[in-house]
């Protein structure tokens, strides 16, 4: 999987936060994001929240939670319908896709999309 780029000097959006926590940013993007996080309490809190959620998912045993195939297919369909995304939960994050969306609804939609992509990626890694 190719490393993601982070090209924004604005706040990290949910995709950038998830990519930072999951180690999916390129080295230069990681360093730019880390520099931003050193100065931004809001983004640091988002990274902390994402890290806690990721850790909770890691401690859940594969036998504890299963997703029906229909759910995985629907999640893949949602991601495939999103411009710049692919059905594997990946995303084309070129340009300023890591810039924080403006407005409450923009942030909510971006957070929901990021959550769906993260969930789909986790399910696919577990073989569901």
The largest β sheet comes out as: none
What is the terminal-to-terminal distance?
19 Å
What's the helical proportion of residues?
55-70%
Number of strands: 0
Taken together, the total number of domains comes to 1
Write the element-wise H/E pattern from the N-terminal end onward. Answer: HHHHH
Proportion of beta-strand residues:
under 5%
- Given as residue ranges, the uncertain stretches (5+ residues, pLDDT < 50) are 84-102
- Global structural class: mainly alpha
What do the pLDDT scores average to? 71
Number of helices: 5
Shape category:
elongated
Query: Mind telling me the C-alpha Rg?
Result: 15 Å
Keywords: Transcription, Transcription regulation
Protein name: Anti-sigma factor
InterPro entries: Anti_sigma_zinc_sf
Organism: Corynebacterium mucifaciens
Characterize this entry briefly:
By secondary structure, the chain is mostly helical. It is 59% helix and 0% strand.
Record the SSE blueprint.
Layout: H1 14-21, H2 27-39, H3 41-59, H4 69-81, H5 104-125
Helix pairs in contact: 1-3, 2-3, 4-5
């Amino acid at each position: 999987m190719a490393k993601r780029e982070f090209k924004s000097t604005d706040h990290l959006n949910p995709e950038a936060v998830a990519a930072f926590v999951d180690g999916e940013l390129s080295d230069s993007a990681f360093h730019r994001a880390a520099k931003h996080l050193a100065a931004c309490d809001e983004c640091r809190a988002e990274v902390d929240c994402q890290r806690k959620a990721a850790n909770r998912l890691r401690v859940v045993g594969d036998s504890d939670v299963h997703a029906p195939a229909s759910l995985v297919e629907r999640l893949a369909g949602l991601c495939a319908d999103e411009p710049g995304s692919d059905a594997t939960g990946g995303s084309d994050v070129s340009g300023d896709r890591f810039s924080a969306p403006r407005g409450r609804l923009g942030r909510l939609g971006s957070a929901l999309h990021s959550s769906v992509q993260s969930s789909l990626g986790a399910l696919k890694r577990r073989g569901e």
